[in-house]
Write a structure and sequence with these properties.
Blueprint (H helix, E strand, L loop, with lengths): L15 H6 L14 H11 L41 H16 L7 H4 L41 H25 L7 H27 L1 H10 L7 H11 L2 H11 L9 H16 L4 E24 L6 E4 L20 E2 L4 E9 L5 H9 L8 E5 L7 H11 L3 E5 L2 H4 L21 E2 L37 E4 L1 H9 L31 E23 L4 E11 L11 H19 L6 E8 L2 H4 L1 H9 L1 H7 E7 L7 E6 L4 H8 L3 E2 L4 E2 H7 L13 H8 L3 E7 L12 H8 L4 H19 L7 H30 L9 H30 L6 H19 L35 H8 L3 H21 L3
Parallel strand pairs: 3-7, 4-5, 5-6, 6-8, 10-11, 10-12, 12-16
Antiparallel strand pairs: 1-2, 1-9, 4-9, 9-11, 13-16, 14-15
């Protein structure tokens, strides 16, 4: 048997012309897959793990051939339509079988089929099996009626004699019949049998009445019509965990990261075809590709330069290498050039000035030193006090710089932390972190269509009008190139504070630079397309009880280079879970609610694919999306990190309690508790933003984190993942189990496992934290003005949070009442109770949506795309978690009256949401 399994889709991309020339499903790859026979044999063997239900109206049964559109191939291998019904040779045999069937006893019902008669609830119950030991028979009475001749004889005397003889014969026949016939003799045994049969008939009639009255037949009909069968919940969980195959995920990462595929390119389109093919082969009910037309930029050949110029400014005395050493090889094609997505085109020159991490505070410190930065080129490093690279560039723009260079310093992610790639996990000297510099905390999605989907003919903003783009050119740089720039700053400006010093070797002294610094040229000419096509791919399993309601799993597909860690650790897990859940459907299982798998495009530019989808389907998502689970850079270490909305904590913890980390021989929940882990809040930076902050869908972001890795560089490839970050793909397997169990619980538990009590308590804690922070900020700002009087008012907001907490506790008691009623009735749920349960679920999901500010012009002031009053990115800390972002922005700006108005508005929306939690 091979050491690893290949994915069950074909990975080799077509050329761009071939891909666009034909249907995605009609594309035939040029190579074969050697391990397909082994995979088929393995999957056939694995099907014995769960009982397979019999065939139903959807055609789900053993040996069936499923297609996403519901078509099922004929099972009779013949071209003669009449051969089954009109064959003369079979007629006698058919009649004989029917006669034998009429004489048969009624057999014991099949126990496997009996599970269909229950409303699908989370109990392993079965109806009693009745065996009939008698069959009804009527007395067999044979009566011969008198007969007459057809014509009278000519001789009347003879006729009379003959008639008399006939009469005597008839009379003898009647007498003989009367002697033979006798009424049954009534005795005690007959009375007992008759009473027993009447009692049995009454029981059957009563049982049927019970089925109709309780609504169980309705539940049966719904299950059969949607192809769903009931399985024991624990069996499903065990089967799911055992089905996760790290070898398949290893193969998936290898395939998806085998060539560069930034958004909108031929490599990107090839990965879209791969995912679409995989979803189809997984047997998902619906599979489709969805395209959008968005603003993207690409590096132009010979259009990027960083140079130090001579004193005249006419000649270059040094030119940066810019590009990394080629890592892909011939089979992968040319690796992605070094550039910034959504950067500004331009060719600027100015004195070089070093500004630490490029935060607003860093730029302000440079100004306070008396250094003139107007027209200069800023040199800043990644990470630090400002993690958003777009805000680093925007801060430089607002400070007066003409351009910005961002480099990777070894003190943050390089050799000073450990061995560098390819033998270690840290950034090597030529490694460059690409990335987008659009302002995703200001405008999310396509920057030319903020608030509406980017289809072909929709109106668009002008590129120079959108607030989502920076207005100065920028480029990323390796520390190998930055070393030369830092050396040339020595003696110019002022020596930097100790905390500003980086780890670039051979830089003996760190200086800020000033207007007399060496002049640097920053050239960034690029190709721009305002309607570049991108491709989302969707797959769906339709739920059997609430098909419109969905649990959504999303992962982006595009990458700045090869993207083994970011994003294809998440892609591999989504591929594997689609296969496992598709296989469960093929076995006869179907969830109560729909499960959707989403492969997003152009996430790396500005979360474009997911945002455009949300904007296109906004009303439906607010009504029907119960939860969104995000997968992105999900395996870069061994410590589980989770951020999300409080209702999802319960499902997360349930899953963590079942999954064991073999490296520590204990559960993930135990490891979480040991280090004091908490469910963090959501900031920005990945595809959950549009779902949580615009659609109001409770969202969860999961990842195993570790030390820094060569992020967004060409060193983030399969070899690094396979040999350094996750050998054996152990943490891929663990996270796939966690995510799969969460999806199973959210999609198939009768009562949606939302922790509303936790939401109430979290709101109370966050309001308290907001008040402490805001009053401290108010005190700082007013101290400069000589005013120490506090004007911020939080009493109404604290009261609203307390109201939510009380309502949530009262509301959550109904689940215990439901449990009591179902258990008391032996595991059966009445139609009325089922209706109440569905309404209860809908109210829990609606609470998050009620926290959206949907009035005209509502949302975060000046950033009205973001509607959630609790979650959302702050204006100047996009990646970080921030609760009540609108209030924080207004406090940060010193707008006290506006802050109080929005505090009151937030309190009113929280009380409105609390009113939903009433039975």
């Amino acid at each position: 048997m091979p050491s690893e399994k290949v994915p069950f889709y074909d990975p080799v991309p077509p050329t761009y012309d071939e891909a666009l020339a034909g249907s995605s499903r009609g594309w035939t790859p040029s190579h074969t897959r050697d391990a397909i026979d082994e995979r088929n044999a393995t999957e056939t063997e694995s099907r014995s793990l769960l009982p397979r239900g019999g065939g139903d109206s959807s055609g789900h049964g053993q040996g069936s051939s499923r297609r996403p559109d519901g078509y099922r191939a004929p099972t009779v291998e013949t071209d003669d339509e009449d051969s089954l019904w009109d064959s003369d040779s079979d007629a006698d045999e058919t009649d004989q079988v029917r006669r034998e069937m009429e004489e048969l006893e009624i057999d014991e019902p099949n126990r496997t089929g009996g599970s269909l008669w229950g409303k699908r609830i989370g109990f392993n119950l079965s109806l009693p099996a009745w065996k009939w030991s008698w069959r009804p028979r009527l007395p067999r009475i044979r009566i011969r009626l008198p007969s007459r001749p057809s014509a009278a004889p000519a001789d009347s005397t003879a006729a009379a004699a003959e008639e008399a003889a006939v009469d005597r014969e008839d009379l003898d026949n009647v007498r003989s019949w009367m002697r033979d016939f006798a009424f049954p003799k009534v005795n005690s045994m007959m009375v007992i049998v008759t009473v027993a049969r009447l009692l049995a008939l009454a029981i059957v009639i009563g049982f049927m009445y019970f089925l109709f009255a309780s609504g169980m037949l309705t539940g049966l009909t719904n299950g059969v019509n949607n192809g769903g069968m009931r399985f024991d919940p624990e069996d499903l969980r065990v089967h799911l965990q055992k089905s996760v195959d790290p070898r398949r995920m290893r193969a998936a990462v290898k395939i998806f990261s085998s060539y560069a595929h930034i958004a909108g390119t031929e490599g990107d389109y090839a990965t879209a075809l791969d995912v679409e093919s995989m979803f189809n082969k997984a047997g998902l009910d619906i599979v489709e590709m969805d395209d959008y037309y968005v603003y993207l930029n690409y590096p132009r050949e010979n259009g990027r330069t960083v140079q130090i110029l001579d004193e005249s400014g006419d000649y270059a005395v040094w030119t940066a290498a810019l590009e990394e050493v080629e890592r892909g090889g011939e089979t992968a094609g040319k690796q992605t050039p070094v550039f910034h997505g959504h950067s500004k085109s331009g060719d600027v020159r100015g004195p070089l000035i070093y500004a630490n991490y490029g935060s607003r505070e860093d730029y302000q410190k440079i100004k306070d030193m008396g250094i003139n930065v107007t027209g200069a080129i800023a040199l800043v490093r990644y990470y630090g006090t400002q993690t958003d690279r777009g805000l680093k560039v925007k801060g430089a723009e607002l400070a007066g710089f003409a351009g910005c260079i961002i480099y990777s310093d070894p003190i943050d992610d390089g050799f000073l932390k450990g061995d560098v790639a390819p033998n270690g996990r840290y950034m090597p000297e030529d490694g460059v972190q690409r990335g987008s510099v659009s302002l995703m905390s200001w405008v999310v999605g396509d920057v030319l269509t903020p608030g509406w989907e980017s289809k072909k003919e929709v109106p668009r903003l002008k590129v120079n009008e959108t607030p989502g783009l920076v207005q100065i050119p920028s480029l990323p740089l390796s520390w190998r190139d930055a070393q030369v720039l830092l050396k040339n700053l020595q003696g110019f400006g002022q020596k930097v504070p100790a905390e500003w010093k980086g780890g670039v070797p051979e830089v003996d002294e760190w200086w800020t630079g000033n207007s007399s610094s060496p002049v640097v040229r920053l050239q960034n000419e690029q190709d721009e397309n305002e309607k570049q096509p991108i491709w989302n791919v969707y797959g769906k399993i339709i739920g059997m009880e609430q098909s419109a309601k969905s649990i959504i799993l999303g992962n982006h597909r595009d990458a700045w280079a090869f993207g083994a860690t970011d994003p294809h650790t998440g892609t591999a897990i989504m591929v594997e879970l689609a296969r496992i859940f598709g296989d469960l459907v093929d076995r006869g299982w179907r969830p109560l609610r729909s499960i959707e798998f989403m492969s997003w495009d152009a996430e790396e530019y500005n979360l474009i694919g997911s945002t455009e989808f949300v904007e296109k389907n906004l009303d439906s998502l607010r009504e029907n999306a119960f939860a969104y689970i995000n997968l992105d850079t999900v395996v870069s270490g061994g410590e589980l990190r989770a951020s999300g909305s409080p209702p999802l904590r319960k499902s997360l913890f349930h899953a963590m309690e079942r999954v064991v980390d073999p490296n520590f021989n204990t559960t993930l929940k135990d490891l979480w508790d040991r280090r004091g882990g908490t469910l963090e809040g959501l900031g920005a930076g990945s595809d959950f933003v549009a779902f949580q902050d615009i659609a109001g869908t409770s969202s969860l972001d999961l990842e195993f984190i570790g030390e820094p890795f060569p992020y967004h560089s060409s060193y983030d490839n399969f070899e690094l993942m396979d040999q350094v970050i996750d050998p054996g793909f152990t943490y891929h397997e663990l996270l796939a189990q966690v995510v799969g169990l969460i999806i199973l619980e959210l999609a198939d538990r009768p009562i949606l496992p939302f922790d509303m009590v936790n939401y109430g308590r979290s709101l109370e804690a966050w309001v308290q934290e907001l008040e402490s922070w805001a009053k401290e900020e108010e005190k700082k700002k007013k101290k400069k003005e000589g005013d120490n009087k506090s004007v911020l008012k939080f009493e109404e907001l604290k009261d609203a949070a307390a109201t939510v907490s009380v309502k949530a506790q009262q509301f959550s008691k109904w689940e215990m009442e439901w449990d009591r009623l179902v258990i008391r009735s032996g595991g059966w749920e009445t139609k009325e109770l089922g209706t109440a349960r569905i309404e209860y679920n809908d109210k829990m999901a609606a609470f998050e949506t009620a926290l959206l500010d949907l009035e005209l012009g509502g949302g975060i002031p000046n950033r009205t795309q973001f509607k959630h009053v609790v979650f959302g990115p702050q204006l100047w800390s996009g990646y970080d978690e921030a609760f009540f972002p609108a209030v924080r922005d207004l406090v940060d700006a010193g707008a006290w009256d506006d802050a109080n108005k929005y505090i009151a508005k937030t309190a009113a929306l929280m009380k409105k949401a609390a009113a939903i939690l009433e039975l």
